[in-house]
């Protein structure tokens, strides 16, 4: 390396050494470092040389050496504008969750210089959003600085409701940094922002990057609750917490003069329960369903109403909480004020109608006549039946049959429950479940007409095949009537009755010893021009063979689609179903 006169160097000398170092770096890193060491010795305060030394270490991937060089640059305080791009690059690296050279280098810089780097990045950011992001980054690294000013800046930002990034920055990034705030009023405002953000977030199909948003919301609730001395059980809502126990705790706050704890804890609990209900429910429809006093009562029922189906527990939790939050004028008024501050209310969609049905307010729950979808028709059918508008109910069933979904599904075991109480059910949008419901209603409509004609009982036998054995008590009643009258005429028997249990019971009646029962159930061609009746009194071998053969024919059809058979039957007998009412 040529000698340099230290006493007579000029600007060209430093450029010369830098250029030689860069040239050497391409072939021999050790030679390059020797040139830079010489330069730093000759020009210890020269910014250009110090910065080139930093860049060389950075390009070589030397974390510790680069950290040392950059610390020297920051300490010197020279040419700060030229350092700003590098400071900005370091800040961007720290905002990322992925490790990088610059983030590792930052970790090897002393805390006081780290603070200077971050403060410089904050002070030199022009964009408001970027300024706030950098401030969050600074406070994450140095929480002792306090976040009050940032919180106040964000919560008062005019762009908060227009730009979701501000809400996210406040709620997701900044609030977890808070340990306390002097103003409970400010904390309440923060909680409303958090409720609004997380409740909107969970309904947004495009964002799924925040883990456990509800638990995060209750973390904010905990922050407020600790400062206001609220019940720790209510503000530390764990994912595994029993909803029923939580609600019982909320009930104890009903008559407390300061209703804030009930309002905020109740709102968070309500929104979470409702979201869980909606997530589970999908397209299931809440309907008035059926109870049977002849069946054993359910052990899971609480209160006068039983709700069954896929999201029953979550819906009832939300509905009960909603009613609690409207339990008196003061709480209701404050609750409405609170919810009016939420920018969007996706949770209201569909819930108000379900709640009206749950409360038995049919006029509010029934869809307008202009809506003729399958869902609307099913809800109308449900309400028509329980209002005893049987003709309208049957008309709507007939209107719904062409709209049935193609997905077949399965029968609903909870469609009919034991007891005399009111029963609501979340009905799946499948052909089997819907037809099961229609057949169950039609059986009871026929039963409630008081018509005791054989044709009515025969129609009921047809309809009960789909949900068998749920209607067994009604079936046994029909058998008793047949035994008492000694005769049963039903010309549609061979067309529609194919369930093997029903066939066996009727065969047993016909074969009973010492009884005289006439079953007029065979097609005309098998009844010898209609003059002979199947019975035990004076029955000859020919009649018995006819009956046995007819039953074998019906049994052979037991694998036919019961769903399609029921649809065909209801359509075929529509005039009778409407006429009998």
Protein traits:
3 domains, 29 helices, disordered N terminus, mainly alpha, 8 strands, 3-stranded mixed beta sheet, single chain
Give an overview in words.
Residues 1-11, 525-533 and 535-539 have low confidence and may be disordered. Strands 1-5-3 form a three-stranded mixed beta sheet. It has three domains: 1-124, Alpha Horseshoe (Serine Threonine Protein Phosphatase 5, Tetratricopeptide repeat); 286-440, no CATH class; 452-579. The protein has 581 residues and is mainly alpha-helical. The N and C termini lie far apart (113 Å). The longest helix is centred in the middle third of the chain and has 22 residues, at 260-281. It has helices spanning 11-25, 29-42, 47-59, 63-76, 80-95, 101-107, 111-123, 128-141, 148-155, 164-174, 184-202, 213-228, 232-235, 243-251, 260-281, 312-324, 329-339, 351-358, 362-365, 374-386, 390-400, 431-448, 454-463, 472-485, 493-496, 500-511, 541-556, 562-572, 574-579; strands at 285-288, 290-297, 305-308, 416-418, 422-427, 487-489, 518-520, 534-535. It contains 29 helices and eight strands.
Count of domains? 3
- The CA-CA distance between the termini, in Å, is 113 Å
User: What sort of overall outline do the alpha carbons produce when their principal axes are compared?
Assistant: elongated
The total strand number stands at: 8
Mean pLDDT: 84
Main structural class: mainly alpha
Radius of gyration: 39 Å
The biggest sheet, with number of strands, parallel, antiparallel or mixed sense and barrel status, is: 3 strands, mixed
Spatial order of the strands forming the largest sheet: 1-5-3
Number of helices: 29
Uncertain runs:
1-11, 525-533, 535-539
Helix fraction?
55-70%
Which strand-content bin applies to the residues? 5-15%
């Amino acid at each position: 390396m040529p000698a340099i006169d230290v006493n007579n160097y000029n600007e060209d000398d430093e450029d010369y050494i830098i250029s030689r170092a860069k040239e050497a770096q391409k072939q021999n890193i050790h030679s390059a470092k020797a040139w830079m060491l010489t330069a730093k010795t000759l020009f210890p305060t020269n910014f250009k040389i110090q910065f080139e030394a930093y860049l060389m270490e950075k390009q070589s991937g030397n974390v510790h050496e680069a950290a040392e060089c950059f610390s020297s640059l920051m300490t010197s305080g020279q040419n700060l504008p030229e350092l700003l791009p590098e400071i900005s690059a370091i800040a961007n690296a720290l905002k990322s969750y992925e490790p990088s050279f610059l983030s590792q280098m930052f970790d090897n810089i002393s805390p006081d210089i780290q603070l200077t780097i971050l403060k410089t990045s904050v002070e030199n950011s022009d964009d408001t959003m970027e300024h706030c992001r950098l401030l969050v980054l600074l406070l994450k690294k140095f929480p002792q600085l306090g976040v009050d000013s940032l919180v106040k800046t964000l919560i008062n930002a005019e762009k908060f409701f227009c730009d979701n990034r501000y809400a996210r920055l406040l709620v997701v990034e900044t609030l977890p940094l808070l340990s306390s705030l002097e103003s409970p009023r400010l904390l309440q405002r923060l909680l409303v922002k958090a409720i609004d953000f997380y409740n909107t977030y969970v309904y947004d199909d495009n964002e799924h990057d925040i883990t456990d948003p509800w638990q995060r919301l209750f973390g904010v609730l905990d922050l407020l609750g600790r400062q206001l001395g609220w019940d720790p059980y209510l503000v530390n809502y764990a994912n595994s917490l029993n909803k029923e126990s939580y609600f019982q705790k909320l009930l104890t706050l009903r008559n407390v003069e300061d209703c804030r704890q009930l309002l905020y804890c109740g709102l968070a609990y309500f929104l979470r329960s409702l979201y869980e209900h909606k997530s589970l429910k999908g397209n299931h429809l809440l309907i008035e369903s059926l109870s049977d006093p002849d069946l054993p009562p359910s052990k899971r029922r609480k209160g006068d109403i039983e709700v069954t189906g896929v999201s029953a527990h979550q819906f009832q939790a939300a509905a009960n909480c909603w009613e609690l939050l409207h339990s008196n004028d003061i709480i209701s008024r404050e609750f409405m004020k609170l919810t009016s501050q939420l920018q969007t209310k996706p949770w209201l969609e569909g819930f108000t109608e379900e709640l009206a049905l749950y409360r038995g307010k049919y006029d509010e729950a029934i869809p307008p006549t202009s809506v003729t979808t399958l869902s609307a028709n099913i809800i109308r059918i449900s309400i028509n039946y329980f209002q005893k508008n049987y003709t309208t109910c049957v008309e709507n069933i007939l209107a719904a049959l062409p709209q049935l979904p193609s997905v077949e599904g399965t029968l609903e075991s909870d469609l009919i429950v034991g007891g005399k109480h009111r029963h609501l059910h979340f009905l799946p949008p499948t052909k089997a479940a819907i037809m099961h419901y229609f057949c169950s209603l039609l059986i009871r409509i026929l039963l409630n007409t008081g018509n005791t004609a054989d044709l009515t009982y025969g129609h009921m036998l047809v309809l009960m095949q789909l949900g068998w054995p749920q209607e067994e008590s009604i079936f046994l009643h029909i058998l008793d009537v047949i035994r008492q009258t000694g005769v049963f005429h039903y010309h549609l028997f061979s067309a529609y009755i194919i369930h093997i249990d029903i066939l066996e019971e009727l065969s047993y009646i016909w074969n009973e010893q010492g009884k005289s029962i006439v079953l007029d159930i065979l097609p005309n061609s098998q009844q010898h021009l209609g003059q002979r009746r199947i019975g035990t009194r004076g029955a000859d071998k020919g009649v018995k063979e006819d009956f046995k053969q007819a039953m074998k024919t019906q049994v052979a059809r037991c694998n036919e689609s019961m769903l399609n058979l029921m649809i065909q039957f209801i359509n075929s007998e529509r005039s009778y179903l409407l006429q009998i009412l």
